[in-house]
Design brief:
The complex is a heterodimer. By secondary structure, chain A is of the alpha+beta class. Chain A has one domain. A four-stranded antiparallel sheet of chain A has the order 1-4-3-2, sandwiched between helices. In chain A, strand 2 and strand 3 form a beta hairpin. In chain A, helix 1 packs across helix 3. Chain A starts with a helix and ends with a helix. Chain B has seven helices and eleven strands. In chain B, the strands form two sheets. In chain B, strands 1, 2, 3, 4, 5 and 11 form a six-stranded mixed sheet that branches. The chains are: A alpha+beta, B alpha/beta. The interface between A and B is medium-sized, with 33 and 32 residues.
Chain lengths: ~260, ~250
């Protein structure tokens, strides 16, 4: 074997190695981008459903009106419209089964509430964004699909104990509380298994203050003398006196990596 | 390589023929327990969503199925003795922990409280609202921590029909509410009791409800049924099918 042929072979080997490294790194980046895109889509779908539930309070609570907009395919169509209006982009394609499971779970949650929705002897039904979000989280946890969604806030400020943050969520909120921004972790764990996790802070909105703000914000006090005001909100909890500048908690989404493969 | 492919093909064909042999040659006796609104045995049960879903699943697999209605008290005895092959829908009682089930739960139930409508509490995580309330609980039943840790007075309800007793006492004002492991059985629009009470749920405390299988069933038949059920549930989960029904 001549020196030049050895050089040629060496060059080919080096080229092959570089090409392999490039392809592997390209693939890793592509997977990373896909994972981020999926978790973003899930977050925005979930948040759109909460917004739609907020906007639908009159339909939810009014008596003797049709509730079809809140059920089945119509409910999903309304969430899609809300998504379009909120993010100014088309609703994500159902190109991953976790998105399908999420949409199915939304329909199932509203159907679980069907008897209550149609009960004309009950005024306030208690189907508000936070309770809808929790019911959806609870429903997803029964599906065994490696997707966990939680609407949470710093410990000690949680009304529903089952919504308390885990250690990952607590540490993330500690980091971002003063400078709220999306926190993405591609090397986290869920149920002891490798997972991607994302925490999306929610800015406090005026509608949050109707329950969590001060008695001035409480719709139950509207038109009453100040001496007759209550600091108990419509859901039966004591109001927290939060303001529009307070940290609003956020949406925590975790997806097991095995689901993404 | 070609040989390996042939072996794989022969293996696949053998498995498929085994399943078709299992399904075509076997009659399954499927027992239903009353579980409204999923299956209501006092009505024409073939109109129930659970019957329609399950029948469709078994039809696809060409099983010859005989359906029987069973009272809850006798249902597990029938299963254990092998007089029914399949029993649904059911949670597994603690004294029947050895009973086999299909790998996917059919659906989940969530416990809750049923109130007289004017006293309705919609959000049960507001446990401070239970303080001093008289809440009837079926004697000996397992309760959720949110209730046992609250300041409610828990009053045991005894008798065969605890639900009717709970409704009656709530209506008469002797109870503020009563606990039900699955209030959906009471609080659904087809039930006359829908007019009497309103129920809310302890979300986050769900119980899986399964399809139980007789221990006398062969492994091959079990595998075949499990696979067709798993496939059906992945295509359209029962809970979604139920939610989308007309």
């Amino acid at each position: 074997m001549t020196l030049s042929s050895i050089k040629k072979i060496a060059l080919k080997v080096v080229c092959f190695l570089f090409a392999s490294i490039y392809l592997i790194s390209f693939n890793l980046h592509a997977n990373d981008a896909q994972m981020k895109s999926l978790i973003n889509d899930i977050t925005k779908m979930y948040m759109s459903s909460m917004v739609y539930v907020f906007k639908s309070q009159p339909i939810i609570n009014d008596k003797n009106i049709d509730k079809k907009e809140l059920l089945g395919k119509r409910f999903i169509d309304n969430i899609k419209q809300t998504y379009l209006a909120k993010y100014n982009e088309e609703f994500p394609k159902e190109d991953h089964f976790v998105k399908t499971v999420l949409l199915q779970a939304m329909v199932e949650v509203m159907d679980d509430n069907k008897a209550l929705l149609y009960d004309d002897e009950i005024g306030f039904k208690g189907i508000i964004p936070a309770t809808f979000a929790f019911q959806l989280s609870a429903k997803l946890s029964t599906k065994g699909v490696g997707l966990k969604i939680k609407f949470t806030r710093t410990a000690g400020q949680i009304r529903n104990k089952l919504n308390r943050p885990d250690s990952w969520e607590s540490s993330v909120m500690k980091k971002i509380q003063n400078n709220p921004k999306i926190y993405y972790d591609e090397n986290a764990l869920l149920n002891g298994r490798p997972a991607i996790r994302q925490f999306t802070p929610l800015p406090m909105a005026h509608y949050c203050l109707a329950c969590h703000g001060i008695p001035d914000n409480n719709p139950l006090n509207a038109g009453k003398k100040r001496s007759e005001w209550t600091n108990i909100d419509i859901t039966g909890f004591e109001m927290e006196n939060w303001t529009i500048d307070d940290f609003g908690g956020g949406v925590s989404i975790s997806i097991e990596k095995s689901v993404l493969e | 390589m070609v040989f390996a492919k042939k072996v794989k093909k022969i293996y696949c064909l053998s498995v498929l023929s085994l399943f078709s042999f299992v399904s075509l040659s076997q009659t399954l006796t499927v027992g239903f327990i009353d579980f409204p609104p999923h299956i209501a045995l006092h009505e024409e049960y073939k109109d129930s969503p659970l019957y329609q879903y399950i029948n469709e699943v078994f039809l696809q697999a060409d099983f010859n199925v005989v359906y029987v209605k069973l009272p809850r008290e006798r249902a597990f005895t029938e299963l254990i003795k092998g007089r029914v092959d399949v029993l649904m829908p059911t949670s597994i009682p603690s004294n029947h922990e050895t009973v086999r089930t299909l790998s996917f739960p059919l659906f989940h139930t969530v416990p809750g409280l049923c109130f007289k409508k004017e006293n309705y509490i919609p959000i049960l995580s507001a446990t401070h609202r239970f303080e001093k309330l008289n809440i009837g609980v079926p004697a000996g039943s397992q309760l959720v921590a949110a209730l046992t840790d609250s300041q409610a007075n828990l009053i045991p309800l005894k008798g065969e029909d605890v639900t009717s007793r709970g409704v009656e006492l709530t209506q008469r004002g002797r109870l503020d509410a009563f606990y039900h492991p699955s209030p959906v059985k009471v609080y659904h629009q087809e039930n006359p009791l829908y007019k009497e009470v309103a129920c809310s749920y302890f979300h986050g405390y769900s119980t899986p409800i399964y399809i139980a299988i007789a221990n006398t069933m062969s492994k091959e038949t079990f595998t075949a049924i499990n696979q067709i059920f798993q496939k059906a549930m992945l295509e359209e989960p029962y809970e979604y099918y139920f939610a989308m029904r007309k």
